[in-house]
Design brief:
- The chain is of the alpha/beta class.
- Helix content is about 50%, strand content about 15%.
- It has a single domain, classed as 3-Layer(aba) Sandwich (Rossmann fold), CATH 3.40.50.300.
- The protein starts with a strand and ends with a helix.
Length: about 210
Amino acid sequence: MNLLIFGPQGSGKGTQADILAERFNLAHIETGQIFRDMALEDNELGRKIRELNERKEMVPDEITLEVLKSHIAKVPMDRGIIIDSAPRTPGQIEGVERMLGKIGRDIDKAVYISLPYEESINRISKRMACSVCRIHVVMGKDIVDKEDPCPACGGKVIQRGDDTPEGIAKRLKTFYEITVPVIEYYKDKGMLIEVDGLGSVEEVSAEIIKKLEK
C-alpha cells in the first residue's frame, strides 16, 4: 500500500502517518522533517533550505522531487510508503506520480485530515519543540510553562520559527491556496479519504483505518 496524507498545520497528520505506518508496515516519508534536518547541514543545499525556511517560503518543486526520490529509493519494494505533504503544489503532482510510476509504486489512496482554520491556530500556538532531542511537546499537555524543560531529555524547549503567529498565518495561507487544489485533484480521481480532525488521535486514526480497509 502506498499512501499520501494531507492536512493543515495542527491537524495531526504526522501523528496519524506514524500510526498508519505501524499498522500497515509503511515507511513514513515526512517531507517537512526531511527539510528541517537538511537545513541544519553546513552545505550549499542546507543553507538554501535554511534561508527559505527563515523567509517562510516553500522549497522549489525540483528540489522537493529530487529529495523525495532519494528517500523513497531507500525503501525496499516489498514495503509500502506514506508520503506526508507531497505533492504539495499542483506543479508537483505530475512529477511525483511519474517518479513513483517509474519505480513501480502506484498511489492507492490520499488521506485528508480536515480541521477548521481557528482550531489550526489554537493547536499550533501551543506546539513547542526540544532544542536537544527535537521531540514535539504541547503546552498544557506535556509542559505547563514555556520555561519547563523537555519531559524526555531535560533540554530547553523552544518554539519553532514557523510556529510564530506570522509563520502560522503564512503556512495556512499557503496550504489553502496551493495544497487544497492538490487535494481536490485526488478527490476528483476518486482516491481521497477525508476525515474530521477534531476528534481525538484514537478516533481519527480509527476512522482512517476503517475507510482504508473498507
